[in-house]
Amino acid sequence: MDTTRDYWLILKPQVYIMMSTQRILLYNTEKGVYIESDEPSCIELIDSARDEQNKGVRFLPQKVLNNNRLITFIRKLQELQMVELKPADNRTHKPESLLPVYPEKSPVFSKDIMLCLTTLYLYINTTCKQKCPFCELYYKQNPCCTRTKCGEELTIEQIKRILKEARNSPLGKIHILGGDLLQYSRFPQLVEILEKANTAVHYWINYKNTNELDTRLLNKIKYWNVLVDFPLDQEQLQKNIALFNGKAIFYFLIHNEEQREIIETVRKLYHDIRIRIIPIYNNKNQDFFETEYYLSKSDIFSKPISQCRIWRNQTVNSNNFGALYIFPDGKVKTNPNAECLGDFHTSSLEDLLTKEVELNTSWLKIRDNETHCKDCLYRHLCPPPSNYEHLLGKANLCHVI
Ligand code: SF4
Ligand code: SF4
Questions:
Q1: Is the C-beta atom of 322 inside 6 A of ligand 1?
Q2: How far apart are CA 255 and CA 229, in angstroms?
C-alpha cells in the first residue's frame, strides 16, 4: 500500500463482521481467521464501509492513511484476505462488492409448517426393569431411554397416524426410544412398519436391555444406538460388542474423568467399535463439566465456521429446529426440556407445530436472546444453546465472559 495515493477499500464477500460500541470482529469464513480491534478509527472505517451508502466499498483518501494504527489494521486485513485495495486515481469508477446479506430478523416460517419437521423422537413405551440412578436426567441431555414419562405405549395405530400426518414433511430421521424397546408389546410389527417409512430409523437401547434381542430382528434394523452407563458392566459390554458385531454405535454416558479413562481402555481392547462420549451433568459434577464442555475462545475459532452456519446461528437453534418429541402419555415437545405444546391424542401434528410458532419453546432459541450472550461479539460463531445450558441454568457455558 502506497500511503501517498487514494484507494478503494473493498470488503470481500467471505467476511463476517460483528460490532459492538467499543469493539469490532472481522472473520474470514473461508480461512477461519479473524481480527479484532477496539481502535475507534478502525471501527469507524469498517462500519462506514458496510453501510447502506458504501455497500462494502469505501473510498480511502490519502489523508486517512496518516494514521499508523489504521494502516497496520488495513495491512492485516489484506494479509487475512478480508479486504482488497484498488487505487482510486479516478474516483468516479467505484468497484463492486458482493457482501453477503445476513438476516436482521428471525425467518418467517414456511406457510406449511409441516415442511419444517425433519426429526421425530418417538418414545414408544416407558417400561424398563433397570434402575439406572440418572434415568430422569439422561434423556434431558441426549437421546436416551427413560422410564419417567409415565404412560402406557404409543400404539401401532398411533405411530401409523404420526407417519401419515408427517408424510409430506422432509423427515430425515426417526428415533425410536423407550423404556426398554424389547418390552414394547408389538416390537417386531413396529420394525416392519417403520422399514417402509422411507426415512432413516434409529433405535436406542440400553446395553443392559439387549439380552433378549434375537439376531434376526437385530439384523433387520440398520441403525442401532447402544447406550452404556456407569458403573460399567464389562462382561455385559463385551456381550453387546459381540452381539452387534459392528452394527451399532456405543454411546457412553460419562460423569467424570475416571470414566473417560475407562473408555480409553475399552477403545484399546476393541479397536473396531464405534464410540461416542456423552458428558452427563448430574448436579454434582460442575468441575468436570467446566473442563469438558465449557468453550474457550480457542475452541470457538478452532475450525472455519461457514457463512451458512453463521446464518443458521442468527436465525434458528439448529440443535432443536425441526425436531418433535412424542411421549407415550401423548405429550408433545420440541425438546425434552421445553414447554409442552399439547397432547397428541387430541391435536394434529400440524396444530402442535403451529403452537411452536406462537410460543417459540425451543426452535428459535438463539444466543441473541440470552442475557449473557446477546452483546457478545462471538454470539453467531458459538454453537447454539443446548440442553446443557438449560440444565446448568447458565446461558454462557464458556470461559470467554
Ligand atoms: S435402561 Fe434406560 S429406561 Fe431403563 S432405567 Fe436405565 S435409563 Fe431408565
Ligand atoms: S458469552 Fe455466549 S456467545 Fe459469548 S462466547 Fe460465551 S457462550 Fe459464546
A1: no
A2: 9
Block residue for cell numbers 470481500: 12
Distance separating alpha carbons of residues 9 and 87, to the nearest angstrom: 9
On the 0-12 / 13-18 / 19+ scale of CB atoms within 10 A, 331 is middle
- Ligand 1: atom nearest CA of 147 is 3
Report yes or no: 265 and 252 within 8 Å, Cβ to Cβ.
no
Among 131, 132, 137, 139, residue to substitute to test ligand 1 (most atoms within 8 Å of Cβ): 132
- Residue-wise pLDDT for 338-348, tens only, equals 999 999 999 99
Which stretches within 208-271 are classed as H helix? 215-220, 234-244, 257-269
Q: Which atom of ligand 1 is nearest to the CA of 208?
A: 1
236 vs 211: CA distance, rounded Å: 9
The CATH architecture one would assign to domain 117-293+322-363 is Alpha-Beta Barrel (3.20)
Residue 378: CB within 6 Å of ligand 2?
Answer: yes
- Atom nearest to 370 CA in ligand 2: 2
Q: Tens digit of pLDDT for each residue in 352-372?
A: 999 999 999 999 999 999 989
The residue nearest atom 6 of ligand 1, judged by CA position, is 132
Strands, DSSP E only, in 67-131? 83-87, 119-123
Q: Which ligand is nearest to the CA of 395?
A: 2
Domain ranges (residues) in the chain? 7-87, 117-293+322-363
Q: How confident is the model at residue 111 (pLDDT cuts 50, 70, 90)?
A: confident
Q: Give the model confidence (pLDDT) of 212-246 as tens digits.
A: 999 999 999 999 999 999 999 999 999 999 999 99
